[in-house]
Amino acid sequence: MYKILKIVVAVLGLLGVVFLGRIMAAGDTELKDDYLATAGNSELVDSMFNPFATIIYIVLILILAFVVFFVIKGLVSGGGNIKNTLIGVGAFLVILAIAYGVSGGDPLVGVDKIYAYDDVLATESESRLVGGGLVAFYILSVMAIGTLVFSGIKKMIR
């Protein structure tokens, strides 16, 4: 299995280098000018970036598949404790639920604050999801920093 993975990584890496070389050889100013001149429908830009993006998506899918596979394999084979893993996943889901509950959905707040992307206004649920994600990030960051400080103090005491 390891040899097959090495071959897949080598092939994908080589394809990525080839497509990156094509992009660099064309030059970014030429690509930008061509893209702007054709009002966003450039065959030159699409022919260079689409294959590169496809390789990125393939690599991402492969990485996610291997991570899920090896995590499940490790849990099932007895190397990990399923109970502790489920407790960790449950705690993470509780943090996400709390963050979502705390965040408010305010797509439009006053005249100055309009949340829009490509002239499409954000809905209340989209605004709430983004706010929940930010709150979850803050909670997890504080927990990580607290854990580092606690372990440092504990190490200093010993």
**What's the rounded overall pLDDT mean?**
80
* Helical proportion, percent range: over 70%
Termini separation: 44 Å
Most strands sheet: 2 strands, antiparallel
Kindly give the count of domains.
2
Low-confidence stretches: none
Overall form: extended
- Order of strands in the sheet with the most strands? 1-2
Alpha-beta content class: mainly alpha
What is the subunit arrangement here?
Answer: single chain
Tally of DSSP helical segments: 5
Order of helices and strands: HHHHEEEEH
CA gyration radius, whole angstroms = 23 Å
**Topology, number of strands:** 4
Amount of beta strand? 5-15%
Describe the structure.
This protein is mostly helical. The chain has helices at residues 2-26, 28-37, 43-76, 82-102, 124-157; strands at residues 108-109, 113-114, 116-117, 120-121. It has two domains: 2-76; 82-157. It contains five helices and four strands; from the N terminus they run H-H-H-H-E-E-E-E-H. Helix 1 (2-26) runs antiparallel to helix 3 (43-76) and helix 4 (82-102) packs across helix 5 (124-157).
How would you describe this structure in keywords?
158 residues, two-stranded antiparallel ribbon, two-stranded antiparallel sheet
Question: Topology of this protein?
Answer:
Elements: H1 2-26, H2 28-37, H3 43-76, H4 82-102, E1 108-109, E2 113-114, E3 116-117, E4 120-121, H5 124-157
Antiparallel strand pairs: 1-2, 3-4
Helix pairs in contact: 1-3, 4-5
